[in-house]
């Protein structure tokens, strides 16, 4: 039993601990063992203190505290504060930085009985320069970013759950590359207290997990509400979405998506070609300008005090461009965001889910953590919830996600209806490592 | 000259330093002298290290660094991180808490040449329990909160500028009570990186100052854009607003506002009774539910680990209510917020400025820092910019503000047109202490 404990989902882990089949310590040790074995190759962790982890698990076994995540090991992206270990933002500038309190999301996870395993690798300031994480499916490839370590750790059975964040595609992209579920909530729903701001107009938390039930459970914990089971759903109305960037997708990706839509229709869903209002095409540059403006200002302290320690790509890219962006352009783009959100609303009335790519392709060889950001900008700019489900296999045999998107604040239905979709695609579903 | 240096506005300070009439050190010493004299009674500062202040000013004199706020002393509310001194959130729980980096707003102020004088007193977690600050106009009265120390310090000539924040009325209320200008920007405009989240759906920065020109200058510094002068404006179209809570205002306040509207009309403005869509009445409870839900979750770490150190009013009020709020109620209220913002848009097309109370009354006797929150909820919920201008005198002879509100992202015009209003009311304008 103990050897396979690390293979369990969060929901299964809770069950096995609640019924006395394993202790919190045994589960934690199984995860630590996997980390010990694989970490030298995968590099998912910025910080993990095994003794502290065991102490936390032992304490939980001792006090017998209840909670919907009792005994579940979790990782937190290293831009999310924890009071009992460092949070370093993926940069040597903040080496050893120690927060005084947990971020709200971490405190809520611990309240629910979760055991913090440590901090997962982020790209530098959750931006473009990679950390040392490798894709557990193929160590010559990027895991995707910026929530690189969170996706890799979940995919590699080091933890069943991890917290990420998303400004552009920082949760859905690595979820697709690593073959796990990646959930981005409705903007504003999950508290960002204690999480480094990248670009406040778009930042959300993200959840990485190995089942939709786990995503749903963890979401409720992070909302601070009593958990309940996923609703059983009839086949959803699906809008198959070929957004303005369709022609930029590799032909293989397009074929896989078309095939996926066909299979869902065969499975009983109403599938229709969804037409997006043409003005949404402008969201790509709106996202770029607004995020750049905000990122550059958020890094003012580092630019003024530690400029030489910022990576060259960040300095000469986002920071330089962001500082050159005028306020007039910024405001024009923020107005555009608001009107596009209003324009998109009818599409989300018409369909339960939109079906779209979760990444342009399977994980490429090399370390660029954020290829093809245009796949994600549209949805992040709209503030709508989305889920990347690991349902496809790319031409090289690597995992690829399908992205399902729902209307603003329809997160519950997104998850329950995505469970129907995942089930319908199950025969070709990608298995985690 | 040095004795009066502390009386200057920020714009005047910049001028006098740029022309060599005073050094940064002399200005800083003048402010420190005022703090030394008055702080035992006023209690505006959570932390002020005179030696460090002098060292910063001396360094600025030495390097001769240019900047639009060169040599201007400023305070920062004690929920805003600074890398070189404590940030304690107005609670003994975080006594001695030390951040690793400046909040974006502090770094931007220093980049512009501002000299951090220290941290100003906030209510506990920027919530309902007062700090030790007293109203500099009458030490038996509250300065208002939660940006209590920032408003009192500016009013009492301890600094020409201070950073506050606002979730409900935490900048405009103390500005009104203390007789200074209090600006709340369009939601999302000014970066919150490094600022404690109270309730993310409403939180903004706030600026406390002694002139509108200073507010405009500081706003541009915080936006990270090149500063330019306030535009000279013709008389604005003013909507005199008697919102749904009009009947709850004391008769004196109503009379003062009616008189103000009359005087502006006599001065040449187009003044008309503004009719708000009736559904905006619901914003009061929407603000209450949403803010409560978010605040309670943001304080999870403290609730779990330091419960006994949280004040009783916060524990048994916002936290208890917030934790009891269901997600369904939270989402229903967030939807309402969105629809009310759309419903309010035509009102802001029709008028340049709305004229409304900045507080229900002059500062009351005693220490309740947040009386009559219903005066503020409407505007904070709408995400529109507003400015409290110290133009009135209450029945006890204490300062009272008038609140001017503009449409989403019309901050520049709000400030330039408010300058017209302030000028038109100048003969009855309240003078700071």
C-alpha geometry of chain A: globular
Query: What quaternary form is this?
Result: homodimer
Tally of DSSP β-strands of chain A: 11
Order of helices and strands of chain A: HHEHEHEHEHEEHEHEHHHHEHEEH
How far is the N terminus from the C terminus of chain A? 19 Å
- Model regions low in confidence, pLDDT < 50 over at least 5 residues of chain A: 428-433
How does CATH name the architecture of the domain at 2-223 in chain A? Alpha-Beta Complex
Order of strands in the sheet with the most strands of chain A?
Answer: 1-3-2-4-6-5-10-11-9-7-8
Question: Could you explain how this protein is built, in words?
Answer:
Two copies of one chain form a homodimer. Chain A is an alpha/beta fold. Among the domains of chain A are: 2-223, Amidase signature (AS) enzymes (Alpha-Beta Complex), CATH 3.90.1300; 282-331, no CATH class. Helix content of chain A is 40%, strand content 14%. Chain A contains 14 helices and eleven strands. Chain A has helices at 10-18, 24-42, 50-63, 104-111, 148-155, 172-178, 212-223, 251-266, 283-298, 300-305, 312-324, 327-350, 374-382, 411-424, and strands at 45-47, 73-77, 115-120, 161-166, 181-184, 204-209, 237-241, 270-274, 353-357, 386-393, 399-405. Chain A has an eleven-stranded mixed beta sheet, sandwiched between helices. The model of chain A is unreliable at 428-433 (pLDDT under 50). The interface between A and B is large, with 42 and 43 residues.
